[in-house]
Specification:
Elements lengths: L2 H6 L4 H19 L9 H10 L3 H6 L11 H12 L3 H26 L4 H11 L1 H6 L8 H18 L3 H17 L6 H11 L7 H11 L5 H12 L11 H14 L9 H23 L3 H22 L14 H18 L4 H21 L6 H11 L5 E5 L4 H7 L7 E3 L16 H12 L4 E6 L10 H9 L1 E8 L2 E7 L1
Parallel strand pairs: 1-2, 1-3
Antiparallel strand pairs: 3-5, 4-5
Helix pairs in contact: 2-6, 2-7, 3-5, 6-7, 6-9, 7-17, 9-10, 9-11, 10-12, 11-16, 14-15, 15-17, 16-17
Length: about 500
């Protein structure tokens, strides 16, 4: 694009170069350590689902309890094009993470102003939290991209009614729901955004009413199992969080990433404090400028999904912070508005502000890139392959991790077995089975083997008293053990 053409469209060449550099930075910090962390079981889960027969993937769209059926066929096509290495599959998430930064820029430019847009996009581009999930084989960058696209289209449809924008709202919102079930919490946000929109065109009512009504249609196939699940008290396996705890974990993740905590020392505390103060400054600036509409939009995106998820969790906990990752952009918009306000008030402060943003985010990014945090199944699998005799039993605790080893193994490591589950509890909370049950099951499983390899990871989910390990330590000889992050391999002989 020529310089003249840029100026005619109101885009100066320096601004265009800055936006390009911003997206380049978002891409760089996501790709530099894309496959440093090993795949964990949720990622291997997604890999397995993407390789199911097409008929099975289509049935998942109406199967009770199935979350995110749309992402599997999308990843299936991507794998067919690029392969199923960790780098290739995570690159799919990386792309949507970079697109989300671009969408946030244009959305903030419309809702707030052009000064807040680059700061908000910079915070999201460098956010250790957003970078972490852009390096995971899951839908946690795809869904925020769809949410930002839906909100951008909704704003365009309100101010300049056109069916292409209403159709975009409908498709993006529906795709988000079928990519993650809790993205349905976006619908009340969209309804309120539409209802409270300060510049809504009088002709927008018809398209808005039709589109927001049609948003219920894509969910009819799953209402049969979703409604009883939401309304009934249930055991979920998730920890129970209060509303305050949910808010704290979200704030900690969005400011620090996954490698630090709010109680981790003075530096993490300062990072969270700085970004929190910038968000407060941004809110105050919007109030001072009488931009209560933009402030209300950010608050709706921040708090409506959180409050609704908290209410649903009162019947049975289902909260994990990554489920609300698509609300994080609202926080970065408020903090970005605060940075833009200070920059506008004191022009010379841009150097200090940029250094703060770059340095404070780089701490979390560096830790995530260099400290192993996901289970190191790749190293564990290679160790087993190199040292295990062909006739020795491979025993998994928890059993699901045999899929992770299957992904990394050059050839499948038969024979293998699942260790017994011992966490059944009775109504009074006491355990249902004890060591005699384990003795019976393990004696049967290990009969005829002279050697046994135990793959030990996330054991509390399956055997929180570690009865299986106790049984092996009493009846077999431990000859070697190799501890890795998140997984330990034990070698026993008779």
């Amino acid at each position: 694009m020529s310089e003249r053409h840029c100026l005619e469209r109101g885009i100066s060449p320096p601004m265009r170069a800055a936006r390009t550099a911003l997206l380049g930075l978002a891409y760089l910090v996501r790709i530099v350590a894309l496959d440093t962390q090993g795949l964990w079981r949720d990622e291997v889960d997604q890999w397995r689902f993407a390789l199911q027969p097409w008929s099975e993937m289509l049935r998942n769209f109406t199967r009770a309890g199935w979350n995110g059926p749309l992402y599997s066929p999308l990843l299936r096509v991507w794998i067919a094009l690029t392969g199923d290495s960790a780098f290739a599959m995570r690159y799919f998430s990386l792309l949507w993470g970079v697109v989300s930064v671009a969408l946030l820029y244009v959305l903030v430019k419309r809702l707030v102003d052009e000064r807040a847009a680059p700061w908000s996009a910079l915070l999201m581009a460098l956010s250790p939290y957003m970078v972490w999930y852009a390096q995971e084989v899951k839908m946690y960058t795809w869904v925020p991209m769809l949410v930002l696209l839906a909100l951008y289209a909704l704003d365009r449809a309100c101010t300049a009614p056109g069916w292409r924008w209403w159709v975009t709202v409908l498709i993006a919102t529906s795709f988000a729901f079928y990519s993650h079930l809790l993205a349905a919490l976006l619908i009340p946000v969209e309804v309120l955004w539409f209802w409270l929109h300060p510049r809504r065109h009088r002709f927008a009512w018809g398209g808005g009413a039709i589109t927001l009504s049609l948003l219920t249609l894509p969910y009819l196939p799953v209402l049969g199992w979703v409604m009883p699940l939401l309304l009934a008290e249930r055991e979920t396996g998730y920890p129970a969080y209060s509303l305050g705890q949910m808010t704290t974990t979200l704030f900690g993740g969005w400011t620090l990433g996954v490698s630090q905590s709010l109680s981790g020392g003075p530096l993490p505390f300062y990072v969270a404090l700085f970004l929190g103060i910038m968000a407060l400054v941004g809110m105050a600036a919007l109030v001072f400028r009488k931009r209560l509409d933009a402030l209300a939009q950010m608050w709706l995106l921040l708090f409506v999904p959180l409050l609704l998820l908290w209410l649903v969790s009162l019947r049975g906990p289902i909260y994990t912070d990554r489920y609300l990752i698509w609300a994080a952009p609202a926080f970065y918009v408020l903090a970005g508005t605060g940075l833009a306000t200070i920059h506008n008030f004191r022009r010379w402060s841009i150097v200090i502000l940029l250094l703060h943003v770059l340095f404070l985010n780089s701490v979390g990014l560096y830790r995530q890139a260099t400290i192993p945090m996901k289970p190191q199944f790749q190293l564990a699998t290679h160790y087993i392959e190199a040292a295990r005799a062909p006739d020795e039993l491979l025993l998994f605790q928890i059993p699901y991790n045999h899929h992770v080893v299957r992904y990394y193994a050059k050839a499948w490591l038969d024979p293998w077995a699942e260790a017994p589950f011992t966490n059944w509890r009775q109504e009074d909370g006491s355990y249902y089975v004890y060591m005699p049950y384990v003795d019976k099951e393990m004696t049967s499983l290990t009969s005829g083997y002279a050697g046994l390899w135990l793959v030990y990871s996330e054991v509390a989910l399956w055997d929180d008293r570690e009865l299986v390990k106790q049984w092996l330590d009493l009846r077999w000889n431990l000859v070697d053990q190799q501890p890795y992050v998140g997984v330990t391999v034990y070698h026993y002989t008779k």
